[in-house]
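=== RUN LOG ===
request id: a7f3
mode: sequence -> structure
chains: 1
length: 71
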Amino acid sequence: KTYHRNMARRWVLSLLMIIGIVGYFTIPTVASWIVSAGGMSAYNRNVARAGSVAGAAAGAIGGKVSGKLLK
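=== RESULT ===
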């Protein structure tokens, strides 16, 4: 009796381990699909564009100020 109980327990634990391994590798992929479908990539693109425009403006102002000071 104990042999069959241990074998059943081993099968259940093996099945849970396989489910865990498959989930470990598939959850990031599915999460990226959800984020892409939700439009988060477009949002990130707009935020990055705004950051680059702000950086360019700060660089232009800094260049103008340093040009005036070195004149």
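=== NOTES ===
The radius of gyration is 28 Å.
The chain has two domains: 1-38, 39-71.
=== END ===
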